[in-house]
Amino acid sequence: MEHRILYDLYKRQAKIIYLYLIKRGCQKEEAEDIVQDSFIKAIEYMDGVAVDKLSSWLFKVALNNYYNRIKKNRIYSKSSIDDVGMYMDISSDINIEKNLLSKEKSNDIKLCLNSLKEKSKSLLILKYDMELSYREILILLGIKEDTIKTYLYRARNEFKKVWRDKYEK
Q1: Could you report the per-residue pLDDT of 115-158, keeping only the tens digit for each?
Q2: Each residue's pLDDT tens digit, 11-66
Q3: What residues contact residue 119 under an 8 Å CB cut-off, 6+ apart?
Q4: Which residue, among 89, 70, 68, 61, has the nearest Cα to 27 in the 3D structure?
Q5: pTM (whole model) above 0.85
Q6: What CATH number does the domain located at 3-73 have?
Q7: Side-chain half-sphere exposure of 26, counting CA atoms within 13 A
């Protein structure tokens, strides 16, 4: 495998994988370790992977590393939506009440997301939290754009149902 391809892959994917892992609940150091371990595996095994599939393969390797660490450490996946900064930018104390309500809503969103199926949670985080395009998600997951749209439609409906059941009764 050429070093240039690996370097380009690293430039494109490392930050996306890292941010995704953080949003899934990894500590920063653990996310860095998972990204590093994933690229080490890429160096070792990627000769058998088609160049056009490298991005999705690497993302799956990173996810598998993450899931293995969860199993090993018996840590349960919680979205890192505690970082309210990804949903709001508190720049002044003028509207404290409004900010507190926004923080409460962020916590409500976190609770709903954590009760979804893994696939739904992952897609909603990639699309709406990380603001990736369908094309970028396609590259990461290695599935067709129409399939992504269908899965996202289902994930949104699943989220709406959970939200309504918890907060609109």
Answers
A1: 899 889 989 999 988 889 999 999 888 899 999 999 999 999 99
A2: 888 999 999 999 888 889 999 999 999 888 888 887 777 877 888 888 888 988 88
A3: 151, 155
A4: 70
A5: no
A6: 1.10.1740
A7: 24
**What does the block give as tokens for 150?**
């269908």
Domain boundaries for CATH 1.10.1740 within the chain = 3-73
CATH match of 95-167 with 3.40.50.300: no
**Measured on CA atoms in the order 78, 159, 142, 131, is the torsion positive or negative?**
negative
Task: Name the H helices within 89-168.
Answer: 96-114, 118-124, 134-141, 145-167
- Contacts of residue 101, defined as CB under 8 A and 6 or more positions apart, other chains included, come to none
d(CA 138, CA 146): 10
| Every domain range in the chain assigned CATH 1.10.10.10 | 95-167
